[in-house]
Design brief:
It is a single chain. The chain is of the alpha+beta class. The strands form 9 sheets. It has an 8-stranded mixed beta sheet with strand order 30-31-34-33-35-36-37-38, sandwiched between helices. A 4-stranded antiparallel beta sheet has the order 2-3-4-5, with no helix packed on it. Strands 6-7-8-9 form a 4-stranded antiparallel beta sheet, with no helix packed on it. Helix 4 (about 465-480) packs across helix 5 (about 495-505). The longest helix is centred in the last third of the chain and has 19 residues, at about 610-630. It is globular. It starts with a strand and ends in a 13-residue tail after the last helix.
């Protein structure tokens, strides 16, 4: 019989160590010969990213420690590896950002020169070369230069930078190099400051002459259109996604113009934070497998000739991306409301195709009874509906005393151009299994609900997101689902900014947790890296014209507004939001006598990857919430509040 215990104090088998040790995010699946290879983060090995494969049903490491396959192009990387047809691994090593080649059983050998300031990402194998997006920090310019570059696969450029060949340049940023089946044309995506790739891009196509592009035409995109993911079909048609209808939808270009493919008020596309991500894949029979998002994700098969779309029953509904196709088989990744994330295999030749798990993100998955099932909720906000996913307290062995309402932790995602889709996760179950509800808020500016919803944040960052998380929390309380006196909020990076803005302007929340949160907009504009150097132009306003707005919006401009207990967590190697921002908030809390704790983490950058950091952060957050919201937290060390 379940025990009757206060919310927040329920005993749970899901420890912080379980979350850290059992969680190893996987992505980037590839078919290599008869095998499946993928990327996998290894928290127990300093959070490095290994390349692994499945041998007789058992995961085997191909890229051993200390090698770490991570690109730093745009700081967020992506496309850090590729493979040849005969099973040679090509990867970007995190520490030196060189491209390396590894034949299983041999030692890696470099393909690009050392100590040049060059970074590489979005790797593609083209004949006997590796094509990539290159970011050159060694040219002496204030901002790095970028191009699409050809790297000889024989290692000729390892000691001779002159052996690297520029294929095309001509813009501040480039992505998705895609060579046509006949090798005659290159398609790619380009954009310039001050735009971000979800605001305005151009999808360009140029003729290849001796391995370079001298001129091109723009076939999609423009000042108010985001075009992404060019993919050639075997027949020589070019598929892509564009949001010219107000939603990222598929289109095709045959040389005579652009045609929509099965348009819908749902998104086949998303924010290009990482290079190389794919939301659709052309199949050999002419159909297209695509992800459609409207809050949650679904898999659909599209017929370009008829425009017909048919859904594929699947447990996957969150963060679904397509990685590779071979014949009728597709590798994809993602999770769902009842399903933890992982790498999946879908065989479309089966009578009733359904994804089968290849490698999960968790080794020892808890029983389903311990995982909260999220439900979509919509509340009224000051600028229209606000979308969210609520994960209720869930524990088969405990119930709360009659009449008690649960505390709720509001999660503000980062970005801010990003999306939460109600996915089951150990991180969320760590709280919900103890009787703490969690609600993920897709505030105005989030993706997954069309361009107009995304543009709601334009000029309003720090106001729209703040008001929407407050509306979501208050909406749950008004519906009798959450205790209005025990609402807390957590966010990282841009989500941390939303936390600080909400705490400085409202008394709705009783506690706040900021992970590497932005606190000073002028400092962010001055310190941030080139990819986001002009992001704030659209979110807040251009400098110096909007400097007064930057000052007024920044929570550090109103330190007297900090009256709510706060936990600050910060990676000391964070190049995106430097530690000085969290330290300034700490100093403001200290000077105003507000209860707080500051946890700096050595060896961590923008996001926590190490097992010991994940454990310390989760246990500290639980102890902090218990002390502030008034419930016991057995089994975790007490966090000392200053």
């Amino acid at each position: 019989m379940p025990q009757t215990l206060p919310y927040g104090s329920w005993p749970s088998p899901i420890s912080a160590a379980d979350v850290a040790a059992g969680s190893h995010p996987v992505d980037g699946g590839r078919f290599v010969g008869d095998e499946i290879w993928w990327l996998e983060r290894v928290p127990a090995e300093g959070g490095r990213t290994a390349v692994r494969r499945l041998v007789d049903g058992i995961p085997q490491t191909l890229l051993p420690a200390p090698w770490d396959a991570r690109s730093r192009v745009h700081e967020y990387g992506g496309g850090a590896w590729a493979t040849t047809d005969d099973g040679v691994l090509l990867f970007v090593e995190k520490t030196d950002q060189r491209v390396w080649s590894l034949r299983p059983g041999d030692d890696p050998r470099p393909l690009t020169p050392a100590q040049t300031g060059m970074r590489f990402g979005d790797l593609r194998v083209v004949g006997d070369e590796v094509w990539a997006v290159r970011e050159d920090h060694g040219a002496g310019d204030a901002a790095p230069r970028r191009d699409i570059v050809a790297i000889p696969a024989d290692g000729a450029a390892a000691d001779d930078p002159g052996a690297l060949r520029t294929v095309v340049a001509g813009s501040d940023f480039l992505a998705y190099p895609a060579v046509s089946p006949d090798g005659a044309q290159l398609a790619w995506v380009a954009w310039n400051h001050p735009d971000m790739p979800w605001d305005a891009t151009e999808l360009r196509v140029g003729d290849l002459v001796d391995g370079t592009v001298e001129s091109w035409q723009v076939i999609a995109g423009g000042p108010a259109e985001s075009a992404l993911q060019p993919e050639w079909t075997d027949a020589g048609e070019l598929l892509l996604v564009t949001d010219r209808t107000g939603w990222w939808n598929l289109a095709r270009w045959t040389g005579d113009g652009l045609e929509d493919v099965a348009p819908a008020e749902a998104e086949t596309g998303g924010p290009l934070w990482n290079l190389g991500i794919r939301w659709f894949a052309p199949l050999e029979d002419g159909r297209i497998l695509a992800v459609r998002t409207r809050g949650s994700d679904e898999l659909v098969l599209l017929d370009p000739s008829s425009g017909a779309a048919s859904g594929i029953p699947s447990p996957l509904s969150a963060r679904v991306l397509l990685d590779d196709v071979r014949g009728s088989r597709v590798l994809l990744r993602g999770g769902g409301a009842r399903t933890l994330g992982g790498l999946w295999l879908l065989d479309l030749s089966e009578p009733e195709p359904a994804p089968r798990l290849v490698r999960g993100t968790v080794d020892d998955e808890p029983e389903a009874a311990w995982l909260a099932v999220a439900r979509a909720v919509t509340v009224d906000g000051p600028r229209g509906p606000v979308h969210a996913f609520a994960h209720p307290p869930t524990n088969p062995d405990a119930v709360a005393p009659e009449g008690e309402l649960p505390p709720y932790l509001v999660l503000a995602h980062g970005g801010p151009t990003a999306h939460a889709a109600g996915e089951a996760s150990l991180d969320i179950a760590f709280f919900t299994s103890r009787g703490i509800g969690v609600v993920e808020v897709n505030y105005g500016g989030s993706t997954g609900y069309g361009r107009a919803y995304r543009e709601r944040l334009d000029g309003g960052w720090g106001v729209v997101d703040r008001d929407d998380v407050i509306a979501a929390a208050s909406g749950l309380a008004d519906r009798g689902l959450a205790d209005p006196r025990r609402l807390a909020i957590r966010g990282g990076s841009a989500g941390g900014w939303t936390v600080l803005c909400a705490l400085a302007a409202s008394d709705v929340f009783a506690a706040g947790i900021s992970r590497y949160g932005v606190a000073d907009l002028r400092a962010l504009a001055a310190d941030t890296h080139d990819f986001e150097a002009r992001y704030l132009d659209r979110l807040v306003g251009p400098l110096p014209e909007a400097e007064a707005v930057y000052i007024e919006r920044s929570p550090l401009s109103r330190p007297a507004g900090f009256t709510t207990p706060m936990l600050l967590e910060q990676g000391l190697e964070d190049a995106v939001v430097p530690p000085a921002q969290s330290e300034a908030v700490r100093d403001a809390l200290r000077s105003h006598g507000v209860a707080h704790a500051y946890l700096p983490f050595e060896g961590e950058g923008h996001g926590f990857r190490r097992a010991e950091t994940i454990v310390r952060a989760l246990e500290a957050e639980l102890s902090f919430l218990g002390q502030v919201l008034g419930f016991a937290t057995p089994g975790v060390p007490a966090l000392e509040l200053s």
